[in-house]
Structure formats: C-alpha cells, structure tokens
Amino acid sequence: MSFVEKIFEKAVFSRDDLIFLLNTSGDERLRLFEMAAETKARFVGRKVYFRGLLEYSNTCSKNCYYCGIRAGNKRYVRYRMTDSEVMEAVQYAYVNRFASIVIQSGEQNNQAFTRKIEKLLREIHASTNGELHVTLSLGEQSEETYRRWFEAGAHRYLLRIEVSNPDLYLKLHPNTPRHSYAARLNALHTLRSIGYQVGTGVMIGLPFQTIGDLADDLLFFRDFDIDMVGMGPYIEHEDTPLYRYRETLLPLTGRFDLSLKMVAILRIMMKDINIAATTAMQTIDPQGREKALLAGANVIMPNLTPVRYRQDYLLYENKPCLDEEAAACQTCLEARIRIAGDTIAYGEWGDSRHFQKRRTMDN
Ligand code: SAH
Ligand code: SF4
Fold first, then answer.
1. Within a 10 A sphere around the Cβ of 263, how many other Cβ atoms?
2. CATH number of the domain to which 205 belongs
3. Phi and psi at residue 191, in whole multiples of 5°?
4. Could you read off the pLDDT of 281-322 as tens digits, one per residue?
C-alpha cells in the first residue's frame, strides 16, 4: 500500500497528512488523483452541474490587493448589466436547461443595489416558474440584505474566505474594518444561519502563502462543514498592489498543480460536497477545467455575461473566452466534458448532497 493510501485509511487527516499530500510527486501524486476520481464516481457520480455565470457589475467599493477590479483601479470602465440583459441570460440558461445561475459582482453596499437584486430575483423566479435556481456572489452584506435576497428566492451564496489564516488575510487586504477577516467569517456564519447553501473557497499560490496555510484551508472547509467550494490559482494582475511580489510566486504550472491537488484532497476529505472547476484553472491550462473534473470537481460555470462587458471584468490577467458568446461557449464545453468522461446533468439543480444531508439531520 502506498503512503497516500495509508493516509486515506485514516478517518481523520492531520495537518501533517495534508502537507504530505500537497507535496506528493510521481506515482504517489497519480495515486492521489486516482483515488479522488474513484471517490467522486462513488459519492456524487460522474456528473457535471452547470451554473450559468453572470458577471453583473464590475463596480466595487473594496480594494483587495489581489483583484483587478478593485475600487482603486481606474483603468476599467465601470458597468452594470441592464435588466433586459440579465433576463436574456436567464432565458438562455432556462431554455438550455442549466437549472441554475450565479450572479456575481463587485461589492456594492447600498439600498439601491439591494433593491435592484431583490427585484431581479423576483423577476427571475416569476419568468422561470421558480425552476431556475439562483446563487449569489455579491460579497459581504448586512444580515438584513442577505435575508431579503433569500426571501426573494436566492438559494445559495458564494463567499470565499480567500485565505483561512487571519495574519495572511491582513497582508492581502487594506487594514480597515470593511476588509477584516472577522467580518468575512462572520458573513459566512450569517449566511449559514439564514438557510443558504453556503460556498466558500480560497486562492492558491498567493504571495506569502505556505503549504501549511493550504493544509489549514482544507481543515477550515471541513470544520465549517461547507456545502460547496470554488478555489483556484492566484493569478497576478499588473494594476494591483500584489503585483510587485510576482517574482516570489511559484510558476503558473506549480500553482495549477497545487490547485489540482487541493481539489483532489478535498474530494476525498468531503466526499459529497460540490466542488467547482474554476475559470482561473482554465486560464493557466486550456484544459484546466477538464483536469479539475478528473481530479474530483463536479460543477462548471459557463460564462453568460454579454461579450461587450468581459474586457472590463478582469479580476486577473489572461482570462479566457473574452470573445465567446454563450452558445459557442456551451458547445465547446459539452465537447470538453465528454472528453473528460463525465455527463452534463441538464435540468438538475444539483444541490450539494452534503447540504441535503445536513438539512435532513437538522430537521
Ligand atoms: N466581490 C465578490 C465577488 C467577486 S470576486 C467577492 O469578493 O466575494 C470573486 C473572486 O475572485 C474572489 O473571491 C477572489 O477569490 C477571486 N479573485 C480576485 N482576484 C483574483 C486573482 N488575482 N487571482 C485569482 N482569483 C482572484
Ligand atoms: Fe471587490 Fe471582490 Fe475584487 Fe475584492 S475580490 S476588490 S470585493 S470584486
């Protein structure tokens, strides 16, 4: 039995086990990926759920040091999708039986924004007979706002913790209450208490980040008992404060490999959660998302943002598919997923089995 297999015989992994797994190479590394693929097939099946992604607006009031659309970056034209553009994307997702969409945006905390999202949620619900599920990814908001959006029909919320180490968090964000680790964590707890299916995630290969930090991120997901995870490599952006540390980073291929290992280990640790094959993985490797599916991911987010806005939603450099309309994107993805050996679960909401189980136990 290999070392990797011995570790997976254990019921609970220690931090050292996780560090060992993140450092595997050669046959041990391949065995890790094989075991993750077996776990995926057995516990969630070889299915991929689509979440149509709407990059709703690039206006952001925050200044995270890693992100291209931070408030301090004056290069981008700030936009917001019109209501009819949103409803067109919604219809595309509905007609093509995606069953679910994600509305993502820079963070905006004001009444007009809260009301706008609330109104859109109700319209989406009405125009799709409540069949299209909506995930929000709109940053940190007050409990009241989260509650209003939940009541208007949002089912899931994605809010990455970004890094679970509070000291590292402080190095990656301005030292202000609006950017505090405590506020981020608190928002995740609030979302959970309201009843959302909660997703979180981290960036991998950041300046100052260690393998031990990544092991702690995996333990964080487990201890939070998270339902969904979206994580991917950190990719530098020249208009951001972190760009000056680019020489200290792992090469892109190293960040990609670590991201694949994070997906594989997490699949084995938390067998029935939803794990996204993220766009940042595709940015580094054209087949990055397919590789993530093989390593245990089961969710893909095809981009439904109108092409004219895509150049202005560059969280990081070299984002792919900037000129690809939704239909072209879908055809290309279908072929790629078939090559990876999975099937697309059209018309299925794909709620995380983990969430369903937790709900049954709570009731
Ligand atoms: N404003 C919201 C949602 C949009 S940002 C929020 O912050 O939650 C969505 C995600 O993009 C962030 O959570 C972050 O993990 C990721 N991101 C931002 N800059 C990035 C970069 N340079 N490389 C990789 N991912 C990045
Ligand atoms: Fe704004 Fe989100 Fe980017 Fe931070 S990561 S600057 S909150 S869009």
1. 29
2. 3.20.20.70
3. -60, -45
4. 999 998 899 999 999 999 999 999 999 999 888 888 888 777
Is residue 92 within 8 Å of residue 127, measured between CB atoms? no
Q: How far apart are CA 36 and CA 22, in angstroms?
A: 13
Which residues constitute the domain of residue 122? 3-362
CA of 185 from ligand 1 middle (Å) equals 16
Could you tell me the distance, in angstroms and rounded to a whole number, from the CA of residue 169 to the centre of ligand 1? 13
Q: What is the pLDDT of residue 362?
A: 61
Which one of the ligands is nearest to 314 CA? 1
d(Cα 73, Cα 27) in Å, to the nearest integer? 44
Q: Give the ligand with the smallest distance to the CA of 241.
A: 1
Structural domain count, the chain: 1
Tens-digit pLDDT profile for residues 64-104:
999 999 999 999 899 999 999 999 999 999 998 888 999 99
pLDDT surpassing 70 at residue 33: yes
Residue whose Cα lies nearest atom 3 of ligand 2: it is: 67
**What distance in angstroms lies between residue 38's CA and the mean position of ligand 1's atoms?**
30
